[in-house]
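Aim 2, interim progress: modelling of the ME8-bound target.
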Amino acid sequence: MSEHCKKAYITTPIYYVNDVPHIGHAYTTIIADTLAIYSRMAGLETFFLTGTDEHGQKIEQAAKQRGKTPKEYADEISGRFKALWDEFDISYDKFIRTTDEDHMLGVQKAFKTMYDKGDIYKDVYRGHYCISCEAFFTETQLVDGEFCPECGKPTQIVEEESYFFRLSKYQDKLLEWYRENEKCILPKTRRNEVIRFVEGGLEDLSITRTSFDWGVKLPPEIDDPKHVMYVWLDALMNYLTALGYGTDEKLLDFWPARVHLIGKDILRFHAVYWPAFLMSLDMPLPKHIAAHGWWTRNGEKMSKSKGNVINPKEVADAYGLENFRYFMLREVPFGGDGDFSQKALIDRINSDLGNDLGNLLNRLIGMSGKYSDGAVSSAKVAELYGEELSEVHDSLDKLEPLLFEMQLHHYLEELWKPLAIANKAIDRYQPWVMMKEGRVQEAYALLGLIANILAKVAVMLHPVMPKTTQTIARALGFTINQTAYEDLIKRKDLLSDFTIEKVPPLFPRIEDPLLQEVAPAAAEEKKPTEKKSEPIEGLITIDQFFQTKLAVGTVLEAEEVPKSKKLLRLQVDLGEEKPRQIVAGIKEWYSPADLMGTQVCVVANLKPAKLMGLLSEGMLLAAKDDEGLALIRPEAPKKAGTPIG
Ligand code: ME8
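Predicted structure of the complex, ligand included:
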C-alpha cells in the first residue's frame, strides 16, 4: 500500500432481497471484513460498506408472491442480512438500503447531473429482457433465440419509452482506464475479459423503466412520473450515496473506493457501467474492482430446488465462525471457483489450524511451563536464532501487498511459512535435549523465538480470525491492536518478557462431518471413517444417528396394491427430481384417500426393496400399539425433502 493512501473505503455488493443470505454472500462479506480489519489495524482511516439492494421488478414480484408490499418484504429480508452480519461480527461501518431516503435523493441528483451534461436522452427501447437478471440482451446473445445467457430463464420482448445513458461515448475512455491501470480489475484475467468486451463495442444503456413501479423516481425537475430508474443505476450509486453524495457530503472524502469486492457474476456492471457513470459525474474511479469466483457444493451448483444451498450460519455454528472464515479464504485462489465440502473444511481445521498453529502454541505452553514456570523472554533470540528470525521477517514483509491485491490464499500460505520455521526449529534444536545438557539459555531463547513467531503470525492472522488471534495474543501477554502491528510487524520488534497464560486447545480435532449432508453427491463424505466409536451399552453417537437419512415427504399419489391385504403404493415427493415410490404395509389403517396430499416422515436412504414385485424406495415412520398404527407426521407443513434430525 502506498504511503499517501491513508483512507480505505471497502465495499461489498449490496445483496438483493429476493434471497436469504447464503455462503456466497458470506464469502464476499468476509473478504471485505478481513480487508477492513487489516486496514484499521494498519492505521488507515477505514470505511466498510455493505447493505441491501431492494428495488426492481424481481423484488416487486417476489413480494407479491408472498402477499406482501415490496417494502414489507424488503424490510424482512434486509433484516435477515443485517442480523447475520451482526451475528458474524462483521465490522461494517454502514449498512445501506436502497430504500433509504438519502440514497434515493443521491441517485436523483446523479441522474440530473448526467442529464444536464447531455449524457442522458429519451428514446424507445426494444429488447429482450431477463427479469431475473434485470438485464437486456441482444438477439445474438440469447440462447436458442429466447433464453437468458446468464440464468437460462426465458426472456421477454420489452418495448418501451426509456431514458438512455450514452455509454458508447465512454468506450475509448474506459479502454484507456483499463490499459493505464493494470490492477483496476482483479484478478488480471478478468481485466482482459472486460477489455475484450468493451472493444467489441458499447451500445447506449437504457436506464429507466415504465413497466413497473418499485424503484427510484426520476428527479422532480425532469417531471416524467411514469419512469423509475433501472435497478443497476440505483444500486451502483449506493457506493457514493453511502458517503452522503447529493445530501450530506461529509464522508465523501473517502471516495474513491480502494476496492469494490464483487462476485464474477456482476463484473460487467461494475467494470463497465459503473466507471462510465463515474466519468459522467466527473468523479474519480475506484482503485480496484475485485471479482471472486463461484462457490459450489460437493462439485454441484447450489440451488434452492436441489436443496443444497449452504447456510453459512449452520456451518459457522457447527465448525466455528473463524475456522470457516479461514477455510473460505485459504481454500480457493481469489477469482477461482471454490467447492465447499465438509471434508475440505475439516482437513483445513485439523491440519493447518490444529497441527501447524494450535499445536505450536500447545508445545510452547507445555515446554515453557516445564522449563521456566511459564516465563518467556525475547533476550538472546536475535543473537542465537537470527537466521530464523530474518526468514520470518522476510515472509511477513511479503504479506501486505498480497492482501491488497486480493491474493488472500497466497497471503495465508505465506503466513504459514513462519509457523513451519518455528515447528522445524523445535524439531531441529530439540529444547528438551538442550535442557538435559544444561544449555538453558539456548533453550529459553528458542522458546522466545517460538513465542515471537506465534505473536507475529497472530497479528497478521488477526483480520481473518479476530477472536482466536486475541486469545493467542493473551497467552503471549499482549493485545493485538495498531501498536502491536507497528511494533511487531513494521518495526520488527520482539515481545516484551511475559509469563505465558495457559489457554485451552484452540482447534480440537474433528473426526467426522458435523453436519448432515443433503445432497446425494455427498455420499463420498459419509464413508465411515477408519476410527469408529464403539457403541456403549446400546447407545449410538450422533454420527451414527445421522447415517439414517430422514426427511419429510408429501404424498402425491396413493393406491391399493392389487391382491394385497396390507400394502399401499405411494408416490412421495422428497424434494428430488422425481417422486419416490414407497410401498407401505398400512392398508389396514389408512385408505389412499386418507393419504393423498398429506405429509409423512420417510427413511430416505434405505436400500430399495421389492414388495409383491413393486420397487419400494423408502420407508414410512409409524408407531404401532394395541390400538393400531399411526403415521408420524410433521406438526406443521414442511417443504418436501426437509431433513429430520
Ligand atoms: O447481484 N458464490 O445481488 P445478489 C460466490 N444486487 N459468491 C456468490 C454466490 C456464489 N455461489 N452467490 C452469490 C446482486 N454470491 C446485486 C448487486 S451491487 C451494486 C448490486 C455473492 O444478491 C457475490 O458477491 O445477487 C455476488 O456478486 C453477489 O453475491 C450477488 O448478490
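The radius of gyration is 30 Å. Confidence is low (pLDDT under 50) at residues 519-536.
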